[in-house]
Amino acid sequence: MLRRNARRSGFTLMELMIVLVIIGVLAAAVVPGLVNRAEKAKVARAKADISNIATQVKMFKADNSRYPESLNDLTTKPSYAKEWPEGGYIEKLSKDPWDNDYILRVPGDNGKDYDVISYGADNAQGGDGNDADLSYWTMNDKKDGK
Question: In the chain, how many domains are there?
């Protein structure tokens, strides 16, 4: 009798295989959604950063009658700046969510006076999906824009 109970305790190989298959199916259904959400969050953060930087570029222009020559001119007072707020326009330049530098172009593309850009996950101009470039003027579909 003791031998019979010992034999029935635990799981059979077939039961373990069924559980592993169920876990695999659930993981295959859930993991891509989580990865996609993480990438969407990176894009959303980059858009917010770009919008904030563009706002500070406009403030710099309003104070100094010209656009900054680089993004560093928003953190450290350049010699040509007439006005300078205490603490600068941006306390510290952050990297984009893919750990690359944001880019300021003066003049910008598409006939705009300036543009703030992130090259996306691949850090190369152009691309689709997560590798797509994010530009202040294109991401907001601005019609007027100087």
Answer: 1
Domain span at residue 40? 12-139
Over its length of 146 residues, how does the chain's per-residue pLDDT go in tens digits?
455 555 567 788 888 889 999 998 888 887 777 767 888 889 899 999 999 999 999 999 999 999 999 999 999 999 999 889 998 999 999 999 999 999 999 998 878 999 999 998 888 888 887 788 899 988 765 444 44
Task: Kindly state the tokens that stand for 133.
Answer: 């470039």
* Strand bridging mode 115-118 / 103-105: antiparallel
CATH code at position 81: 3.30.700.10
Cis peptide before 107 (omega within 30 of 0): yes
Q: Please state, in angstroms and rounded to a whole number, the distance separating the CA atoms of residues 29 and 40.
A: 18
pTM for this entry: 0.72
Q: Decide if 108 is inside a domain.
A: yes
